[in-house]
Design goal:
By secondary structure, the protein is mostly beta strands. The chain contains 1 helix and 11 strands. It has a domain of about 120 residues.
Length: about 180
């Protein structure tokens, strides 16, 4: 069995015209995947220790640390308020940030593929898919002669509107009869 290594290839909106890949050369540090069951503890009057637990939800997140500073890459990998290309001189571009208060977080499918040697694995059983993921960005840049610009993106899985499934580990085309 081959050794799967980090970082990961992350494909936003796979199989669509808007498909966009974040590859290992864009990443600065290790990616962190968290898959967590959520519980509520049931207490009794007899003890301070829980008597039982019930599932209350499931949370899935992937945090990726990026070092890419290219404006087009940043626009596609994050949720900017506006991206503007000058109509007279298309080499002039800008991203505008503003409060997006009250707007719902845009969501899309995100495919996560570990590397198998130097290439992303083609074994679909090793893939993870966030069926309906929101992207949150946190840019905190220190500019100095011994520092590297880094920004973090967190992908959070939300329920698929139809199936209510959040994450699939393996081949999403697999079906049961």
């Amino acid at each position: 069995m081959p050794t799967l290594i980090a970082p990961l290839q992350i494909i936003l909106a796979p199989g669509t015209a808007g498909e966009f890949a974040i590859n290992r050369e864009h990443q600065l540090n290790d990616a962190t995947l968290t898959l967590s069951d959520m519980f509520k503890e049931h207490m009794t009057q007899e003890s301070a220790a829980p008597a039982d637990k019930s599932f209350t939800g499931f949370e899935a997140k992937l945090e990726v640390s990026l070092a890419e500073w290219d404006l087009e890459f940043f626009r596609r990998a994050t949720n900017p308020a506006r991206y503007i290309v000058d109509t007279v001189d298309p080499t002039k571009k800008k991203i505008e940030f503003q409060d997006l208060t009250g707007l719902r977080l845009p969501k899309q499918q995100v495919l996560i593929r570990p590397y198998d040697g130097t290439l992303p694995t083609t074994n679909r059983n090793d893939w993870l898919t966030f069926l309906n993921a929101g992207i949150e960005t946190n840019l905190s840049a220190t500019f100095g002669k011994e520092t590297q610009v880094e920004y973090k993106i967190t992908f959070t899985a939300y329920p698929d509107p139809i199936t209510r499934v959040k994450v699939v580990r393996g081949d999403i085309t697999a079906v049961s009869t």
